[in-house]
């Protein structure tokens, strides 16, 4: 029982004893504030998982020390017996040990592939979040080792992680699994696009993915919240878009990131998969959102979110036409986008008494100003003036936020 619910139960009993309210009224009051569902025992999960990993490593080292003295059939018996007892951790170890027994000289990323496929199958059979986490990590290792070690895009790894494990995270409403899946999707998409077309291709893919995730949050079915899951998708979407916009706010980076001539020539499938598929999906999601908004089928989208598809379309237009040479103008546009988002978050946060938007807008504004300290201003006097203006603005924002909260409290209470 949570502390507030326990306090209410104790106090309501005291009110009944003092005859301030009846027992029926006390029961009705307690019914208005039911106990929240029990939280997952993360301490137990984390320490048990860590302990299982350490035990598995200890077993592997112990066997490795006596490995030469064990006959082949004995080795195989130990391996497959351990698989039956410890599932995926020792299943993965078994793959590498079997290869060592018979001196199999194989393409080493395949070991991560078979390990990940086994963990993925167990994750769905058991509906297990820990197995899903292991499958995500091993499949990501497979894909990234192909990208970084052999310059091969990892499209299949990306599909397995996004489809097979993203759907499991949604079904289980697991925030932890979704965080790992989205991180792996970003890494695999950037690694695959980079292996095909270099830094500009990886940048374009990251920008499109971030913009698409921001739209996906708004397109969720009506009444679907799942606070942790939705917040995670929103976080990764805004991190992707703002990180890309921040990089483009530097004129020294903008030209290189929007130079599409760096991409490999003649790789049509990779061009579709890593250049146009993420872009097309993001545009389709925002187009669907625009149609729903025009028909009044969805809540109003805040103005700053429309800067996401605008920025994406602008970047792709520059890339297609090859007109990104005027990088000073590009950096100016994305400085204004970052400042516009920060200003709108700050204004709405203060006006509506929303602490999260107020803080995020203030942090974004401070990051942009500090970046310009190293990138734009030459004079110490100009830099000092910029910091004075920033500090004064944040102080004024604090007073305005407090005033709005005090005005709203008598009517609606504290948010």
Average of per-residue pLDDT values: 79
Structural class per helix/strand content?
mainly alpha
Give the H and E element order: HHHHHHHHHHHHHHH
Query: Helical percent range?
Result: over 70%
Shape assignment: globular
Enumerate how many helices there are, as a single number. 15
Estimated radius of gyration: 27 Å
Count of extended strands: 0
Spans of at least 5 consecutive residues with low confidence? 410-415
How would a crystallographer describe the biggest sheet? none
Kindly, what is the distance between the CA atoms of the first and last residues, rounded to a whole number of angstroms?
23 Å
Strand content: under 5%
Describe this structure in words.
The chain has 15 helices and no strands. It is mainly alpha-helical.
List keywords for this structure.
415 residues, mainly alpha, disordered C terminus
Can I get a quick summary?
The protein is mostly helical.
Please render the helix and strand layout as text.
Blueprint: H1 3-17, H2 23-32, H3 42-65, H4 72-101, H5 109-126, H6 129-150, H7 155-172, H8 175-218, H9 227-248, H10 251-257, H11 268-294, H12 307-321, H13 327-352, H14 355-375, H15 380-412
Helix pairs in contact: 1-2, 3-4, 4-5, 5-6, 5-7, 6-7, 6-8, 7-8, 8-9, 8-11, 8-12, 9-13, 10-13, 13-14, 13-15, 14-15
């Amino acid at each position: 029982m949570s502390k507030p619910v326990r306090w209410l139960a104790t106090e309501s009993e005291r009110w009944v004893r003092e005859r301030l309210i009846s027992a029926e009224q006390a029961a009705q009051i307690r019914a208005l504030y039911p106990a929240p569902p029990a939280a997952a025992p993360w301490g137990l999960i984390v320490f048990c998982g860590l302990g299982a990993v350490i035990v598995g490593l200890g077993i592997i080292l112990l066997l490795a020390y006596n490995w030469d003295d064990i006959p082949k059939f004995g080795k195989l018996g130990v391996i497959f017996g351990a698989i039956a007892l410890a599932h995926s951790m020792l299943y993965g170890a078994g793959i590498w040990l079997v290869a060592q027994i018979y001196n199999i000289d194989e393409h080493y990323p395949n070991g991560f592939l078979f390990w990940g496929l086994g963990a993925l199958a167990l994750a769905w059979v058991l509906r297990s979040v820990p197995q899903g986490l292991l499958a995500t990590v091993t499949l990501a290792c497979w894909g990234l080792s192909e990208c970084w070690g052999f310059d091969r895009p990892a499209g299949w790894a990306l599909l397995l992680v996004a489809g097979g494990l993203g759907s499991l995270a949604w079904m289980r409403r697991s925030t932890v699994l979704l965080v790992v899946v989205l991180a792996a999707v970003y890494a695999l998409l950037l690694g695959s696009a980079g292996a095909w077309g270099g830094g500009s291709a990886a940048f374009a893919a990251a920008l499109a993915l971030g913009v698409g995730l921001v739209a996906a949050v708004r397109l969720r079915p009506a009444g679907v919240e799942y606070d942790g899951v939705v917040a995670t998708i929103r976080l990764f979407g805004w991190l992707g878009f703002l990180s890309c916009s921040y990089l483009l706010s530097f004129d020294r980076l903008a030209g290189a990131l929007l130079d599409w001539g760096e991409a490999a020539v003649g790789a049509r499938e990779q061009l579709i998969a890593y250049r146009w598929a993420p872009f097309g999906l993001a545009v389709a999601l925002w187009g669907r959102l625009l149609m729903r908004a025009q028909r009044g089928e969805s809540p109003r989208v805040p103005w700053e979110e429309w800067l996401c598809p605008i920025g994406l379309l602008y970047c792709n237009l520059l890339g297609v036409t090859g007109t990104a040479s005027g990088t000073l103008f590009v950096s100016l546009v994305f400085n204004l986008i970052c400042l516009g988002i920060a200003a709108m978050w700050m204004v709405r946060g203060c006006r509506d008494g929303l602490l999260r938007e107020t803080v995020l807008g203030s942090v974004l504004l401070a990051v942009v100003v500090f970046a310009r300290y190293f990138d734009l201003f030459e004079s110490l006097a100009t830099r000092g003036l910029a910091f004075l203006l920033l500090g004064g603005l944040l102080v004024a924002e604090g007073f305005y936020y407090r005033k709005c909260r005090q005005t709203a409290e008598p009517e609606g209470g504290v948010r």
